[in-house]
Amino acid sequence: MKEIKGFLDRNMRQYGMILALVTIMIFFGLVTKGKLIWPRNISMLIRQNAYVLILAIGMMLCILTGGNIDLSVGSLVALVSAMSGLMATTLGLPSWLAICLSMLTGLLAGMWQGFWIAVVKVPPFITTLAGMLVFRGLNNIILDGKTLPLSGLYTTIGTGSVPDIAPNTLPDFLRIGDLLKLQNKPDYLNVTMLIVGFVLSGLYLLYVLLNRKSKQARGYEVASLKSTIGKALLFFIIINICSYWLAMDEGLPILLILLAVLYAIYSFIASKTILGRHLYAMGGNIKAAELSGVNTKKMMFFVYSNMGLLAGIAAVVTAGRSMAASPNVGVNFELDAIGACFIGGASANGGVGTIWGAVVGAFIMGIMNNGMSIIGFDVFLQSLAKGMVVLLAVAFDMFSKSRSRLG
């Protein structure tokens, strides 16, 4: 019994997030009579909530430095979107060039805020609050209340899928859509999506086993081989089920590739690099980190510059999905990103949190948004529900910390 309690205490945050995600999916799946898990809805869920995942990754790095946040990301998304409309539609620049310049705009805006925070020592809350007002004002000046259409590479990124290499007829025994009475039941499976899912799940299985072997060779304590294989096989099955589900719709969304690349890059930075260790050290105790040689100015400048770059990417994704640059885009985006991080296990005091947690939290926020929209929840009730979930997530973090101090 003590071993079980110890295991739960050590893994409460990690497995609690996954359990919450599964529970919310099951709940809304039942309430919506299965509409939430339709293949077409899952594809749309990825595209509609890609901005949350992208912004949550950057926001997690900000929070790690000591509970700092960026209130300007929604307005920065609007500004970069407006710049896209200006360059691609008004000035007639090629889409690829407009996208590059738009992301550069986001990076420069992030560097501007990083300068005030790291060099001038203006608190991040005040700096980004000012940025929220400034960027929204610039967006309105550029667009002048108009909506500018976008096309080309923007829509390819925002709504496109990887072409199927070999469309095939769906055999009767694979017609799961018929068994589940799904809407728009497919006549074929997207072979490209099936291959990608199987290869990725196989690589994941191989990585887990090699990583365990490497740790064991260096003398680290590792889980039993049986337990490791069991967890890896579980994820192997989940990945292939998800790939099958997407294969019943349009296949592999281009946005999913972008999200996977960003997740891999930032997970590596946070967990495997000196930069990542310095960020966690700052959140643990910023004075001790400075005395240990951490350049806190450089770290703060980096995280807010990086947040600007990711806001630029989120803006391109959002503009591509809506196929337009709108003066009203980005409203409350910062709240979704912050909420996703705290739901995903970030500590309000900093120093605790993972990129994986931010992704899980973003999916929880996305499923809640989508599920409540499907069942016709009032917009105000949706805000109430999301606010309570974020509050409970932070309260759970505080409760866990108090237990660990007492225990």
Unreliable stretches covering 5 or more consecutive residues: none
- Major sheet: 2 strands, antiparallel
- Based on secondary structure, the structural category is mainly alpha
Shape verdict: globular
Assembly of the depicted chains:
single chain
Distance between the termini: 16 Å
Query: How many domains comprise the coordinates?
Result: 2
Q: Residue share in helices?
A: over 70%
- In the CATH hierarchy, the architecture of the largest domain is Orthogonal Bundle
Q: Which strands sit side by side, in order, in the main sheet?
A: 1-4
> What is the tally of helical segments?
17
Topology as a string of helices (H) and strands (E): HHHHHHEHEHEHHHHHHEHHH
Can you walk me through this structure?
This protein folds into two domains: 39-161 and 258-407, ABC transporter involved in vitamin B12 uptake, BtuC (Orthogonal Bundle); 171-252, no CATH class. The strands form two sheets. Strands 1-4 form a two-stranded antiparallel sheet. A two-stranded antiparallel sheet has the order 2-3. It is globular and about 60 Å long. The chain is mainly α and 407 residues long. It has helices spanning 2-31, 39-48, 50-64, 73-90, 95-118, 124-143, 153-159, 176-179, 191-217, 225-247, 254-272, 274-284, 286-291, 296-322, 333-343, 355-374, 379-406, and strands spanning 148-149, 168-169, 188-189, 324-325.
Topology:
Layout: H1 2-31, H2 39-48, H3 50-64, H4 73-90, H5 95-118, H6 124-143, E1 148-149, H7 153-159, E2 168-169, H8 176-179, E3 188-189, H9 191-217, H10 225-247, H11 254-272, H12 274-284, H13 286-291, H14 296-322, E4 324-325, H15 333-343, H16 355-374, H17 379-406
Antiparallel strand pairs: 1-4, 2-3
